[in-house]
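Reopening this ticket.

The earlier resolution said the output was attached, but the attachment link was broken on my side. Pasting everything inline this time so it's all in one place.
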Amino acid sequence: MDEIIKAQEHSYKLWEQHISNSMLLYPNEYLTRYIYANKRDFNSILDFGCGDGRHLEMIARAGLEHIIGVDYNRSVLDIAQQRCQKYNIKCELYQNNQNKKLNELIKDELDCVVCWGITLTNAYYATSEIFKQFAKILKPNGKVIANWRAQDDSLYGDGKEIAKDTFIIERDSHKGMLYYIPNLDDIKEIYRGANLEIISIDSERFTTDNGKIINSWHIIEAKKI
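Inline output:
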């Protein structure tokens, strides 16, 4: 367990450098469609792991009124703050480096939580706890939309496996990062343990480098039971 915790902390630092040095300009297309399709039902929303704010900007443009961003790293939140100021976006930004529970930061119950590109960067012990915290800040029937790397992704099995389905990646683009890529049954168990009911499971898959690298995701919508 100590090895996993140390690897997790090191990975957070690497992600901070990655995001700080290369701002992600565009929101994910699937998530954008989801937000616009459901915006009449969502007044309040949390982007957990908001990074540099690319999805905060998109959510604001969709017309949502109460927008919150939370991230582990202070420097990327500073970038998100600059982005929000540039485009006159009103949102609340909080750093949470696991020293507080989400319901200590966020007092109001929310309609939706976005967790995009985050599940893979946290080991099982962290991911399962995060989803339990989501349930505590959601309104009854509030939604969680999240994506998870699938096991046919090229990153699965890359590098040293330090726990079940948990790897220290060796590929240059992700070198040293901890990636947790569970199977679908284990993902479903995380939702059950958090009292979240899965509504739908979709997939997103594309290749890069002339088909050599496979990027594959489960996209899961769930609601608070």
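Reporter confirms the inline version is readable. The CA atoms of residues 52 and 77 lie 6 Å apart. The chain has a mean pLDDT of 93.
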